[in-house]
Design brief:
The structure is a single chain. The chain is elongated. A hairpin with a 6-residue loop joins strand 1 and strand 2. The chain has helices at about 5-15, 50-60, 65-70, 80-90, 105-115, 125-140, 150-165, 180-195, 210-215, 240-250, 255-270, 275-285, 310-320, 340-350, 380-395; strands at about 25-30, 35-40, 70-75, 95-100, 115-120, 140-145, 170-175, 200-205, 250-255, 295-300, 325-335, 355-360, 370-380, 400. It has 15 helices and 14 strands. The longest helix is centred in the middle third of the chain and has 17 residues, at about 150-165. With about 400 residues, the chain is of the alpha/beta class.
Length: about 400
């Protein structure tokens, strides 16, 4: 239970992990939010690409000889899997990991490469968890829970110690939430050391299990979750993590997939950092002012960078649209000579760049002498898009809402 967690556990975890994990220094101050002083804790630069290595390794290091001899089992959306695999292999222990069948291929292959056996389970994290429980009971493995274990929570809390040591005057820390292990460890440590530091949590709007649980006062089990942030797509928070969050976390908010995509793009372009969806939610919350950090020295935890390269292009496209760097225009115009040239001139003179043009004139619902122009355009920002649309309207063209 959460009452078993002590601040001394987190300091002990820091001692165990000192020579095992990377301790990435803060990056910043960044320009991700001009109204706040935003710094980044880049756990995406960890050995396994995620903070999860900390908790998994510390838990395994604390196992008895008998528990180690039985081998370990875990369930994961991908990052905890790699942490467990790394920790187990480093200690000469057999590991079996249950992953959702839809987990990114990059995470599955990375887990195997670190020496673990992999069992793919249809569904999401919670389905993989149930399978892991079945196999544990059947074969006697030692379970390494991804978030709801005091020792795992203590390992994750070491990030808070590093932030405070490097920036004692930090005002606020923004942390991603899936099952809640990361924020539980960090919030517990921070509030013991300096209760004046604000701790804000962030979930994807398509997987708001902790948000709804705290709102209801009891743990809520979501029927389904859907988000590009697969690493935090958890249907139900843990018993320990729920209690710790209820006591120590100041506020939890949600961000949309479009906001997450915009944050991934901003981290790539402005900070040269690759973040997965779950790793970018804290930055998304800061960028889109989801938490009250105006004027505050704020650290966003970039919790992981294991994004599947096959989905990266789609995420970048979504991020471009959300940030006003790309837009699609649909124009109703008379089908007569010169109209297309006039539209192109207006777009070009505005400083936008045309990517593609589709000239549709055979739709049955259109008048015979009309056509619809679909144009995809590269733009500078949302203000640029608004100005371009205004120029087209002032020139007599009719824009159709998509």
């Amino acid at each position: 239970m959460a009452s078993n967690l002590e601040l001394s556990d987190i300091y002990d975890a820091a001692r165990v992990l000192k020579e095992v994990v990377r301790h990435p220094r803060l990056i910043g101050e960044t320009s991700l939010n001009p109204d706040a002083h935003i710094y980044l804790k880049p756990e995406n630069l960890q050995y396994t690409g995620s903070f999860k290595l900390r908790g998994a390794y510390y838990k395994i290091a604390c196992l008895s000889d008998d528990e180690k001899a039985r081998g370990v089992i875990a369930c994961s959306a991908g990052n905890h899997a790699q942490g467990v695999a790394f920790g187990a292999t480093s200690n000469g222990i057999r590991s079996l990991i249950c992953l959702p069948a839809g987990a990114p291929i990059s995470k599955i292959e990375a887990t195997k490469a670190l020496g673990a056996e992999v069992c793919l389970v249809p569904g999401v994290y919670d389905d993989a968890y149930q399978k892991a429980i079945e196999l544990q009971q059947e074969h006697g493995y030692t379970m390494i829970h991804p978030f709801d274990d005091p020792l795992v929570i203590a390992g994750q809390g070491t990030i808070a110690l590093e932030i405070i040591e490097e920036m004692p005057n930090v005002d606020a820390i923004i942390v991603p939430i899936g099952g809640g292990g990361l924020i539980a460890g960090m919030a517990f440590a921070i509030k013991q050391i300096n209760p004046n530091i604000k701790i804000y949590g962030v979930q994807a709007s398509g997987a708001p299990s902790m948000v709804e649980s705290l709102h209801d006062g009891n743990r809520v089990h979501l029927e389904s979750v859907a988000t590009i942030a697969d690493g935090i797509a958890v249907k139900e928070p843990g018993i320990n993590t729920f209690e710790i969050c209820r006591e120590y976390v100041d506020k939890i908010v949600t961000v949309t997939d479009d906001e997450i995509a915009a944050a991934i793009l901003a981290l790539m372009e402005k900070q040269k950092l690759i973040a997965e969806g779950a790793g970018a939610v804290a930055v998304a919350a800061a960028m889109f002012n989801k938490v009250p950090i105006k004027g505050l020295k704020t650290v966003c935890v970039v919790s992981g960078g294991n994004i599947d390269v096959t989905s990266l292009n789609r995420v970048i496209t979504r991020g471009l649209v959300k940030s006003g760097r790309n837009t699609s225009l649909k124009i109703d115009l008379s089908d007569r000579p010169g109209q297309l040239a006039n539209v192109c001139n207006i777009i070009g003179n505005s400083g936008a760049n045309i990517i593609s043009v589709v000239h549709e004139r055979n739709t049955p619902s259109l008048p015979i002498n009309s056509c619809v122009l679909h144009i995809e355009v590269e733009t500078r920002n949302l203000e640029h898009i608004s100005r371009l649309k205004q120029q087209l309207t002032e020139a007599g063209f009719t824009l159709i809402n998509n």
